[in-house]
Every structure is written in structure tokens, then in C-alpha cells.
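Support reply, case 0932

Customer input (verbatim):
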Amino acid sequence: MDAGRASEAKRTTVERRSDRELVVTRSFDAPARIVFEAWTKPELFKQWWVPKSMGMFLRSCEMDVRVGGGYRLVFGHDGSNPAEFFGRYLEVTPHSRLVWTNDEGGEGGPVTTVTFEEKGGKTLLVMRELYPSKEAAGAGAADAMSEQFEQLDELLATLQGAA
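Our regenerated output:
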């Protein structure tokens, strides 16, 4: 029974809360400090962000994680034209909250908020994407989040083992 609960606790849930808001929730078996670092340190972020099943890799990852700082992620397949995600950080509260813009789509990009809530050495992560319109919300990459979070889970286990 405990194994079933552990499996359920790690399940990624993706929920459309409104025409404009997507919410992704996942519990990680690691302290908020380590989960936050995996989201804010380029050398860690590169290890889990791109779903392996897509056959792509993160070519570069620039992150200036501070209010007003920016980020730029360049990824793609070998020999393909790269795709980019970029924006700026609106809020940075270490170990508990990140808010950033997604500017690659122009003014139609969402604002992403990620919260990290630690309870008993585990972290509940809630990621909210708020789009400026119903039409813009239709183009999200929610399907990839489960795989990305599985990869993050694997990285966190490695980081905790090394600590």
C-alpha cells in the first residue's frame, strides 16, 4: 500500500484551470533548496529540461536568475535549425518561488510561476502558466511536462545521493 501511495505522490498532474491558465503539479522526494537549484543553475537545468524522447538536446542555457535578469534556452536536433525560449525573471524568491515571462511568442506568451513548498523533506512543486488569451493558451507543451519531471526526479535522486 505504501508503494502505491509513493507512486501516486510522484504523479504529474496537468490541469486546465481556466481558458487562460494551465497548472502542473508534482511532488518530489527532495528538499525545496535542491529542487530550486535544479531550476536555477544552468548546469543542472540542462540535465532535465528537454524530454529525451524528443531526440533533442539543450545546445545552450543562459540564466541570470534575479529580478530583471533574463534567460535564453536554445535547443534542437543535430543538424536542425535551433528553437529558442527566452524571457526575463519577474520574481525570484530563493527556494520558494520563480516567476518569468516567455517572450519568444511576442506579447502572446504566458507568464510562468513556479512555487516550491517543502513538507517533511519533500517538495510540492506547482507550475502555473497564465496566457494573455484563450487562443494563446491552446499552444502549450503540457504533454512534455510529465517526462521532464520524471527526468528531474532522476536528477534529484542523483544530487541527494552525492550530498
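We compared this against your earlier run and they match. Two observations from our side: The first strand starts at residue 13 and ends at 16. The chain has one domain: 15-136. Please reopen the case if you see a mismatch on your end.
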